[in-house]
């Protein structure tokens, strides 16, 4: 990030995570490490998207500095993208997204929610260890299917 430019993302630590999630409607987190080449490739997409969506909080968790937090979040691969809406995790994916896919994800997350204040879907993208989910779907198809089923809940 350009030191002279506007701040588009914020460093998140174990001490700031809960407050950040609780005080922002939508929080998008990138769990990364300096040595991680895929993290480096995704970083510019994450920064540009943050600049385009000023109404969404974008944060970065440094896996090297925040190892205990990364373990608590059950992150097993870098980068990992975590998205929270109204303090609930609504999306989790190991690996980066294209700029178009990240923009579309944010649009979909903004559209989540019903009049009762409850989220319509909780999205969990990753398989649990030892679990088989069948052929992979594109993230947009996965999210579309979840949204079509109303209040489908998936464990995170």
Structure overview:
The chain is built from 5 helices and 5 strands. It has 156 residues and is an alpha/beta fold. The protein has a single domain, classed as 3-Layer(aba) Sandwich (Glutaredoxin), CATH 3.40.30.10. A 5-stranded mixed β-sheet has the order 1-3-2-4-5, with helices on one face. α2 links the parallel β2 and β3. The chain is globular. The N terminus and C terminus are likely disordered.
Give the arrangement of secondary structure elements.
Blueprint: E1 10-11, H1 17-23, E2 26-32, H2 37-52, E3 57-62, H3 67-72, E4 80-85, E5 88-94, H4 99-111, H5 139-148
Parallel strand pairs: 1-3, 2-3
Antiparallel strand pairs: 2-4, 4-5
Quick recap of the structure?
By secondary structure, this protein is of the alpha/beta class. The chain is 33% helix and 18% strand.
Primary descriptors:
5 helices; disordered C terminus; disordered N terminus; 33% helix; alpha/beta; globular; 156 residues; single chain; Glutaredoxin; five-stranded mixed β-sheet
Low-confidence stretches: 1-5, 120-137, 150-156
SS element count, helices: 5
Helix content: 25-40%
Distance between the termini: 31 Å
Q: What is the fold-level CATH name, i.e. the topology?
A: Glutaredoxin
Radius of gyration: 15 Å
Strand fraction equals 15-25%
Integer tally of domains: 1
CATH homology superfamily name = Glutaredoxin
Number of strands: 5
Mean pLDDT: 79
Strand line-up of the largest beta sheet: 1-3-2-4-5
The CATH class, by name, is: Alpha Beta
Main sheet?
5 strands, mixed
Tell me the overall shape: globular
* Structural class by SSE content: alpha/beta
Order of helices and strands: EHEHEHEEHH
- Judging by the overall fold, what is the CATH architecture? 3-Layer(aba) Sandwich
């Amino acid at each position: 990030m350009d030191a002279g430019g506007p701040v588009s993302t914020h460093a998140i630590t174990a001490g700031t995570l809960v407050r950040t999630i609780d005080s922002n409607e939508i929080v998008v987190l990138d769990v990364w490490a300096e040595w991680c080449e895929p993290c480096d490739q995704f970083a510019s997409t994450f920064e540009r998207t943050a600049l385009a969506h000023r109404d969404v909080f974008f944060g970065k968790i440094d896996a090297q500095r925040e190892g205990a937090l990364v373990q608590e979040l059950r992150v097993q691969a870098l980068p990992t993208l975590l998205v929270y809406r109204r303090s609930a995790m609504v999306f989790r994916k190991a690996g980066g997204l294209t700029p178009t896919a990240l923009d579309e994800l944010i649009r979909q997350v903004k559209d989540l929610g019903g009049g009762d204040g409850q989220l319509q879907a909780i999205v969990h993208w990753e398989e649990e260890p030892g679990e088989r989910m069948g052929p992979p779907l594109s993230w947009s198809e996965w999210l579309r299917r979840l949204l079509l089923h109303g209040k489908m809940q998936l464990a995170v």
